[in-house]
Amino acid sequence: MGEKLLKNKWWWLWLSMLFVAVIYVASLTHFRIDLTREKRFSLSNSTKRVLRELDEPVMIDVYLTGDLSAGFKKLSVASDELLSEFKEYAKGNLQYRFIRPGEGLPDTLRYQVYDSLVKMGIKTFNNQVTAREGEEKTERLIFPAATVMYGGRQLPVDLTSGKSGMDEESTLNYSEALLEFKFADAIDKLTRKEFPIVAYAAGNGEPLPPNGKIKDLFVTMSKNYRFGVIDVRSGRLDADTINALLIVKPAEAFTDAEKLKIDQYVMHGGNVIWFVDKLYAEMDSLLRAQSDFVAFDKNLNLDDILFKYGVRINGDLVQDLKSAKQPLVVGQVGNQPQIQRLPFPYYPLLSSPSTHPIAKNLDDVLSIFPGSIDTVKASGIKKTILLASDTNSRSLSTPAIVSLQSVKNEEDLRRFTKSYIPIAVLLEGKFTSLFANRLTNELRDSLAMSTTKPFLPVSSKEGKQIVVSDGDIVTNVVTESEGALPMGVQQYENYPFANKEFLMNAVDYLVNPNGVLESRSKDFTLRLLDKEKITNQKTLWQLINIGLPILIVLLFGWIYQLKRKRDFAA
């Protein structure tokens, strides 16, 4: 008996030493295993790279804390878990804290803090909280946002995201999926040492400053890139210098010499985003005429070059029953017109049929008189539809008659039979030059005057282009009372559509191939509890959750005592 006890002592000693060794090794090599199906706790490689390359401390203040409803509490916990993961990869260069703005301050100072946060662009939210079941709800002002600080600069991060029409649970789940991208994107922008050069093409009737319709475009781009205007006719389009070229809403035809410069910019590795209206159709003209008008072709002379690259912008206008609203006259009250905001089919709300990171998890994008795009055969070019209409669409071919009363009866509604008409297409690969077999001496001479680089019939390396058949996606409304509104916001309506987000994602994808955009591809499945079952089976599950663990402990205790009796009896 004594020998058996001695052996047991040595066995326990070795077990204790092994346990201490495991703890020591675990303290040196920290790792986590993500067992979730959608890998919600795993960071993308680009995010890890940004965090590992931090050379100075990053401080993050998160304002979503305190008494919160269940949905916002879940978002707060998800933010904490994500930033804890960030901290692991940052190796001491990232700290974060959760704070309630203005807590402990007198009312006057607290409201000053609130005001300063709002001026930074942080949104407030009235959150209804129920302390206990059956009690009345109390409303609290919360800030579902954070501030990322680095090197004396700071950027606000809105923790909420969503699509129009989503309920609160879906919106917060959607927000959780984008947390990694939002924090990583803010850190990436603050720590970026070199800013890509993005040029805005001029010379073919494009809107230019001080035109208020492109104010938000210029402000947004200037914050994130080295951004400026280049005249296509006289400027030098050098792919080694200019990372991307924006062509926005041209109104005048391109000459062959201008197209050759753009073409060779692409052949040498340049990237282009085309925001092109093929037809002339403007709301200002419709309101001035107060009647129907015919949308006509602008004759921009771009059909051949875009066709060569793999797309064709059609001479039509896309309508969709899922559309933004426009003030329309619906009747008369006495001598006064009765105006009501109604869905206007010429303003389709676009979404993405693909899972590409540029457009995935993106809210609706507002378009104004867009045309449709067809993809055509182009050897070696990968085509991805980024934006398309919804499931109840139609296209009106030229001559397209634009009318304020485009949908008059039920018969008109039955004509919206098309689905997912492409409006924005991404092209990737090695492009073939439009001038590969048609370069005249005159064009060769004009090219020699603008660049020292040789003519290339095929791209020297893979490039990217995005073709969008609506120039108004990146313009903004200008009002007499408020001036220039943000991109994607309509007059009389404060809801911001995702136009600006689409633009920034598109440009970032072209100029920053190793950026954090891939983290937008996360997709969290919303697994909701059945509320009816919760109510009906509440008592049963409470008994199981409380009673079952106690029964298991008692069962193991009984088995252990039974085993001891048998051992001593032996």
Automatic annotation (TrEMBL):
UniProt domain ABC-type uncharacterised transport system: residue ranges: 198-506
Pfam families, sorted: ABC_transp_aux, DUF7088
Keywords: Membrane, Transmembrane, Transmembrane helix
Presence of keyword Transmembrane: yes
InterPro entries: ABC_transp_unknown, DUF7088, Motility-assoc_ABC-rel_GldG
Transmembrane region(s): 12-31, 540-560
Tree of life domain: Bacteria
Residue ranges annotated for the DUF7088 domain, each copy included: 38-148
Keyword Signal annotated: no
NCBIfam families, alphabetized: GldG (TIGR03521)
Name the UniProt record assigns to this protein: Gliding motility-associated ABC transporter substrate-binding protein GldG
Organism encoding this protein: Segetibacter aerophilus
Lineage, opening ranks: Bacteria, Pseudomonadati, Bacteroidota, Chitinophagia, Chitinophagales
Gene name linked to the record: gldG
